[in-house]
Amino acid sequence: MEIGNVLFAFGLTIFAGLATGVGSLMSFFSKKFNPKFLAGSLGFSAGVMIYVSLIEIFDKARASLTGALGDKLGYWATAGSFFAGIAIIAIIDKLIPSYENPHEMQGNPCGDCRDEEKQFKLMRMGLFSALAIGIHNFPEGLATFMAGLSDPTLGVSIAVAIAIHNIPEGIAVSAPIYYATKSRKKAFYLSFLSGLSEPVGALLGFFILRQWFNDVTFGIVFASVAGVMVYISLDELLPTAEEYGEHHVAIGGVMAGMVVMALSLLLMA
Asked: Which terminus of the chain has a lower count of CB atoms within 10 Å, N or C?
């Protein structure tokens, strides 16, 4: 494993993780915020992630595992790892209570509260959102890192898709904290920290897995990453896109993301 490839892949995870800071800044200028644009962007991100997971990442994982384990066992291992990735991220979602989970759509969390209660509840929501996003970003960091390590072009595409996905997460953290504290600095700082868990996830994954890094390990991790990305797209990106904008805007973004991803893979082939 060349050090240059490792540094490049790690750089992609930093880029994707720091996009939460972009979302934080956007929340401070909400008058200029275009929800339809964000809905289309989230749909685009979901389209990229679904297409690349099912067409490219799953195929690479299967090729690696069938080469090491044989056609039948390798295919079983690929499918099993894919659904294991879905199960892992679903369990993480389940362990986070829905009220504190930024991916569960909520109404006004404190419509009838006094000002002090509103501030407390908003601050609590922001802090729990930061913690929840930090937990979610661990597997996303590993996904970006593994893709960048395997194929730089694929890694860039996934990093951009996850960066777009991280923008509303930054809003989910910074907006309630800002309205609770009136401190842009504190809101941005906590949003920024939640995004840093992405490169931390990549580092932990690399140092834990590298001593066992072979075709079987690569295939299992890559197939699991595909499952994680499909789950994130269907459970987080698309519902959030629907929340921010019109249904057809979100779906149009999905189709555009798939087309762009397909063209980029064809042109780079």
From this structure: C
pTM for the predicted model, two decimal places: 0.65
Closest by Cα among 213, 263, 262, 202 to 52: 262
Between CA 234 and CA 198 the distance in angstroms is 20
Question: Taking the domains of the chain in order of start, what are their residue ranges?
Answer: 3-29+39-268
Residue 23: is it exposed, middle or buried by C-beta count within 10 angstroms (0-12/13-18/19+)? buried
The model's confidence at residue 82, banded by pLDDT at 50, 70 and 90, is: very high
The pLDDT tens digits for 89-120 are 888 777 765 544 545 544 444 444 456 666 66
pLDDT of residue 233: 84
Residues in the chain: 269
SS3 for the chain is CCHHHHHHHHHHHHHHHCHHHHHHHHHHCHHHCCHHHHHHHHHHHHHHHHHHHHHHHHHHHHHHHHHHHCHHHHHHHHHHHHHHHHHHHHHHHHHCCCCCCCCCCCCCCCCCCCHHHHHHHHHHHHHHHHHHHHHHHHHHHHHHHHHHHHCHHHHHHHHHHHHHHHHHHHHHHHHHHHHHHCCHHHHHHHHHHHHHHHHHHHHHHHHHHHHHCCHHHHHHHHHHHHHHHHHHHHHHHHHHHHHHCCHHHHHHHHHHHHHHHHHHHHHHC
Nearest to 133 by CA among 204, 49, 190: 190
Dihedral pair phi/psi, residue 165, rounded to 5°: -65, -30
Average pLDDT over residues 188-217: 79
Q: Which amino acid is at 98?
A: S
HSE-up of residue 32 (Cα within 13 Å, Cβ side): 6
For residue 166, what are its two tokens?
């991280």
